[in-house]
Design a protein that fits this description.
This protein is α+β, with helices and mostly antiparallel strands and about 450 residues long. Helix content is about 35%, strand content about 25%. β2, α2 and β3 form a beta-alpha-beta unit. The radius of gyration is 21 Å and the shape is globular. The structure holds adenosine-5'-diphosphate (ADP).
């Protein structure tokens, strides 16, 4: 096992990894920007190294700086968390070539899944269901027209190198296609440095359901059931739960099989997530694989009892998974609410100083956060400041527990989305599990102006 790990991240995920290291008897090294001197991860780690000024491209994304921090602290391995450099295969290569262990999948798996056109071709070979669409990249308006005619409108144009819900265009009729296609290409070039786009049929009211997988270096791969992540805004998840309140058991088995086939086809050797869209008739399609730990991993940890960060570290160190698929059992229900420093309904960022932070407690409530009373949230990074996760035997009880946890939570001195969660949790459709990926946006439109 490693003696020291460098965590190339900040915020709640850096804190989560530091805590795990401590439990495993591993020393932790935090990196921080000049804006994060007082951040929780900087304070909590055994050592902390400043890697540059506030803007992420000068610090958390500054590869030479991060590597220098690993060298001066004699770290043996690097955990990238999520976001920042987590899905950067070139960074993973540099880490490995410099003699450190990369706590994540192989750079090859990252590349295969990171380019969505490549990923879809691999999934097709593996027999994983795909949304009808173009056969690979689409490079001209004529080709786009032909694909759209074949699939029928609406269609969605997506960037091969896209991520984070960016670089997508929905087209409802032929008249808009030319413009949308050319814009999608130039936006993809500007945002991702790669103008490759592809086309899919646009599913009108799907649910977002994803499967957690975990593999080791000895050919073992398991799934850890599904998460329902349909409560989104601008393709950003707001609330997640496990299991999905919608999937039938028969669909679940097919979903897990598809996820395992997807992971095996890229020889996956870490924690990863296969994302699917699911229609009302429970037909489902692969959309992408995230080759990293995800924000919503705690709901899976709670229903399975498996510490996913611990197993990322263990398999990176060469250990075998200590459990087989048949040992994994689902227990109860878990829900996560993301707490963001932003306007609860307009979603504009609202960084500021936290006067008072009071975390809810009691039975089966978990808080993964990176805040404390008196902490000033810097304006340079993601607005998510923490997560509240609850668990209970049934979904109904779990929702009740989350309601009381959100009532108890105090983050004063600045604006958070706590009120959004309070109202969402009281919504009858949400309580009934009756929603799709448009639910949150449609519901927000109906809310009175004030
Ligand atoms: P990203 O990597 O940017 O997150 P994804 O391919 O995972 O891109 O898609 C993000 C979200 O966009 C999905 O969760 C879904 O809400 C929507 N989406 C993507 N493809 C389709 C599609 N073919 N039909 C309907 N919605 C889609």
């Amino acid at each position: 096992m490693f003696h020291k790990i460098l965590i190339a991240n900040r915020g709640e995920i850096a804190v989560r990894i530091i805590r795990c290291c401590r439990e495993l008897g591993i020393k932790s090294v935090a990196i921080y920007s000049e804006a994060d001197r007082d951040a929780m991860h900087t304070r909590l780690a055994d050592e902390a190294v400043c890697v540059g000024p506030a803007p992420a491209n000068l610090s958390y994304l500054n590869i030479p700086s991060v590597m220098a921090a690993a060298e001066v602290t004699h770290a043996e391995a690097i955990h990238p968390g999520y976001g920042f450099l987590a899905e950067n295969a070139d960074f993973a290569d540099i880490v490995i070539e410099s003699g450190y262990t990369w706590i994540g999948p192989t750079p090859q798996s990252m590349r295969d899944m990171g380019d969505k056109v490549t990923a879809k071709a691999l999934m097709q070979q593996a027999g994983v269901p795909l949304i009808p669409g173009s056969d690979g990249a689409v490079s001209s308006v004529e080709e786009a027209n032909a694909v759209a005619e074949r699939c029928g409108y609406p269609i969605i144009i997506k960037a091969a190198a896209g991520g984070g819900g960016r670089g997508m265009k929905v087209v409802y009729q032929q008249a808009s296609l030319t413009n949308a296609f050319l814009m999608a290409q130039s936006e993809a070039a500007a945002a991702f440095g790669n103008d490759t786009v592809y086309i899919e049929k646009y599913l009108e009211a799907p649910r977002h359901i994803e499967v957690q997988v975990l593999g080791d270096h000895h050919g073992n791969i398991v799934h850890l059931f599904e998460r329902e992540c349909s409560i989104q805004r601008n393709n950003q998840k707001v609330m997640e739960e496990a299991p999905s309140p919608f999937c039938s058991d028969a669909t679940r088995q097919k979903l897990y099989q598809a996820a395992i086939a997807a992971a095996k086809s890229v020889d996956y050797r870490s924690a990863g997530t296969i994302e699917f869209l699911m229609n009302a008739d429970q037909s489902f399609y692969f959309i992408e694989m995230n080759t990293r730990i995800q924000v919503e991993h705690p709901v899976t940890e709670w229903i399975t009892g498996v510490d996913l960060i611990e197993w990322q570290i263990r398999v990176a160190a060469g250990e075998r998974l200590a459990f087989k698929q048949s040992n994994l059992k689902r227990k109860g229900h878990a829900i996560e609410c993301r707490i963001n420093a932003e306007h609860p309904f307009k979603f504009t960022p609202a960084p500021g100083t936290i006067e008072l932070f009071h975390a809810p407690g009691g039975r089966s409530v978990r808080i993964d956060a990176a805040i404390y009373s008196g902490y000033t949230i810097p304006p340079f990074y993601d607005s998510m400041i923490g997560k509240v996760i609850t668990h209970a035997r049934t979904r109904e009880k779990c929702l009740r527990r989350m309601q009381r946890a959100i009532e108890e939570l105090v983050v004063s001195g600045l604006t958070t989305n706590q009120e959004l969660h309070r109202r969402l949790l009281a919504n009858p459709a949400l309580q009934a599990g009756d929603f799709n990926i448009h639910f949150l946006e449609e519901w927000l439109e109906q809310l009175p102006e004030d």
